[in-house]
Amino acid sequence: MFETAVDKGQTYKTTTVTQKIAIACKVPSFLVFYTPGSQHDEVTRFRIKKLTPVESELRVMNPPEFIKMLKILQERHSNDCVLAEVPFWVSL
User: With 0-12 CB in 10 A as exposed, 13-18 as middle and 19+ as buried, what is 50?
Assistant: First the structure.
């Protein structure tokens, strides 16, 4: 679960609701500050902090590093999730 905000150099953002939902769902949560690029759909940098289950310090990532992290999170979740192979539209 992710709480996002445009990066303006801030070091803090309230994430209480995100953390509570993540704990209830038993999934990790993250705060992601992103730096927009010159194109409207471009991001040049991320600053990421793990919120739950154990809080971490902010870490700077470039887009390929962030994508790699997302893939790792998906793989870890797929190993534990009973619904990982069920297409999302089946439950609609």
Answer: middle
Tokens of 31: 């705060």
Cβ neighbour number for residue 85 with a 10 Å cutoff: 7
Convert the pLDDT of each residue in 34-80 to its tens digit. 999 998 889 999 999 999 999 999 999 999 999 999 999 888 877 77
Tokens describing residue 28: 């990790």
Place of tokens 């993250």: 30
Backbone angles phi, psi at 64, to 5 degrees: -60, -35
Q: In the block, which residue shows the tokens 């962030």?
A: 66
pLDDT tens digits along 60-71 = 999 999 999 999
